[in-house]
Design a protein that fits this description.
11% of the residues lie in helices and 28% in strands. It has one helix and ten strands. By secondary structure, the chain is mainly beta. A hairpin with a 3-residue loop joins strand 2 and strand 3. The radius of gyration is 24 Å and the shape is flat.
């Protein structure tokens, strides 16, 4: 006699993503600590991730009404109350090399047109989650300010171009 086929337990349906009224549900499958701050012109999401997680395993999707951060198949979905713009210059996603913290800066949908997501971030990366509630407000840069900064960088490079060019000394043996 043959063995009867093994019965597989029925799979549970996936958890709902919306309520019956159509409102999007939030979830944090990875149980990551996060901070979502809303300023007058920008929204800043900071997610504390392990620094050992490869950046290629992190996916960030910003839509008008919510943001979805996918890390190794686990999702963090948050509703953005004022809404965010999704143009390329209006979303800035950065990751700290030292702590692994992910910082997503989005321009609010009701912000003026000359505001971009460029903010000044300290050398060590995004602001830390363990700071007090009275967090320093990030400096907003207008598009004309960014243009001036990029022109300044070009002028600095021109200053170094005026130096004498490198001359290879034939008497010094090669390193390899």
């Amino acid at each position: 006699m043959r063995n009867p086929p093994k019965l597989q337990p029925p799979q549970a349906p996936p958890p709902p993503t919306h309520t019956l009224s159509g409102r999007r549900l939030q979830k944090n499958q990875g149980k990551w600590p996060f901070s979502l701050k809303t300023f007058p012109t920008i929204i800043v999401l900071r997610v504390s991730l392990s620094k050992h997680i490869d950046t290629s395993l992190i996916s960030v999707d910003v839509l008008n009404d919510h943001i979805c951060v996918d890390v190794k198949g686990k999702q963090l979905i948050l509703v953005l109350e004022p809404g965010a713009r999704t143009n390329s210059g209006d979303v800035l996603c950065e990751r700290s090399k030292t702590s692994g913290e992910l910082c997503v800066t989005m321009v609010r949908i009701d912000a003026p047109d000359n505001v971009t997501a460029e903010v000044e971030i300290p050398k060590e990366g995004c602001l830390k989650l363990k700071q007090s509630d009275e967090m320093k407000k990030p400096k907003i840069m207008r598009r004309d300010m960014i243009l001036k900064k990029s022109i300044g960088i070009i002028e600095v490079k021109k200053e170094f171009a005026d130096e004498e060019p490198f001359v290879d000394d034939p008497e010094v043996p090669p390193l390899c």
